Amino acid sequence: AIRYPDEVEGPLYAGIAATVEGRFPAAIPYFRRVVAMDSLGLRGEGARCAACEALEQIVAVYQQMDSLAAAEREARAWIRLQPKSARAWIWLVAVLDYQGRHEEALGAYHTFATLAPEYDGGLLFLAGHRIAEGSYGEAERILREVGHIGTEAQKGEALWQLALSLRQQGRFAEALDAARRFRAVWHDDAYQSQAPYSALMQAQVLFEMGRYRESAALFDSIAGVSGPPEVPSSMRAKARVWALTHAATARAAMGDTASLAAEVEEARALGARSGHGRDRLLHHYLRGLLLAARGRPEEAVAEYRQAMSSPNTGYTRVNLELARTSLRLGRPRDAIDALRAALRGGLEGSNLYVTRTELHQVLAQAYEAAGVRDSAAAERRLVAAALRK
User: Fold this and answer.
1) What is residue 7's three-state secondary structure?
2) Which residues contact 330 (CB under 8 A, 6 or more apart)?
3) pLDDT tens track for 117-169
4) Coil, strand, or helix at residue 151?
5) What angle do CA 30, 27, 352 make, to 5 degrees?
């Protein structure tokens, strides 16, 4: 970016690096510079559209900052520049879904589908969309249909989404069965370990069933990654610290603070070797669990705040533990802020490791403690609807 100022790759990758490190505001000027430099790409006259990549990154950055109105504004500006860009439309879909505007998102998705006729994941998208809006029966119907008529890859993805949906409904025995079947058929694992990365869902369902020892053991097996020689050491560190964090969470739930203290330091060392800013902060989350267990909630809250890489797309258990500890300290408004941000994220990735139903449940308690009884009642209705089966 400094030595070759006329080359678009410099600011593009400088912006991506800042984003991955979690320096979101610093990334945006780099991406705007790329858009200004690459007018040929925007017009479709270049071999590559670096400006399109930069526009995508701008939307993603605002999304990760929980600035969803700004993300929507940027997505719509991109669509005005490139009305036939399927990429632009699918980003608008995601931003609308994150805001809970599911019907508008579905309308934008239909436009995307007309612009990308080669895309064959329509039923799976629709199922995920129905899960996000809480229409679990419809989602399950779609997923079982894909299980009959889909390709092998689609059938595997359907099992993953089925487990995800069943977890939201508290139907953990069925979710565990779906997670085990997914693990049996999905073999696209980049890392080599005692248990494959495809076992992550199974380990998480075990945690939610209260089978913490089994969950921790499975996460530990996943964390023992080596990977083929071509996998960079930073990627191995990323994979290991992620699974180790979940294993430590399960041990904390068992009350095992002795091993948790050692895992804080291991997470700090591993996170420093990862290229992902989120991973470098995970040791703060584990330290927060340790401090909370030792009866030091004020210090735990400070650690949770340091662990938050993104309010809505970071590791969502940070939001949950921050909220729970804030409630214990008599600060329901802080709990409400943390939980509402978590609900403006997706269902996958870093958000996978807590159910939305649990977030709504704790949010109901926070609203009740804050004296906002109508909102508390609305949250309880959402929980009751999710758990009715």
Assistant:
1) coil
2) 369
3) 888 788 999 999 999 999 999 999 999 999 999 999 999 999 999 999 999 99
4) coil
5) 140
Alpha-carbon distance of 366 to 80, in angstroms, equals 41
182, amino acid identity: F
Of all residues in the chain, the percent with pLDDT exceeding 90 is: 86
pTM score: 0.93
What's the residue count for the chain?
389
d(CA 212, CA 214): 6
Which tokens belong to 368?
Answer: 């009740």
CB-CB neighbours of 222 under 10 Å: 26
Q: Which two tokens stand for residue 81?
A: 């520049």
Distance (Å, whole) CA 344 – CA 17: 24
- Locus of tokens 């533990």: 321
> Quick one: 28 exposed, middle or buried, by C-beta within 10 A (0-12, 13-18, 19+)?
buried
Q: Which has more pLDDT, 39 or 242?
A: 242
**Tens digit of each residue's pLDDT (9 = 90 or more) over 186-198:** 876 666 677 888 8
Tokens of 248: 């430590």
* Coil, strand or helix at 1: coil
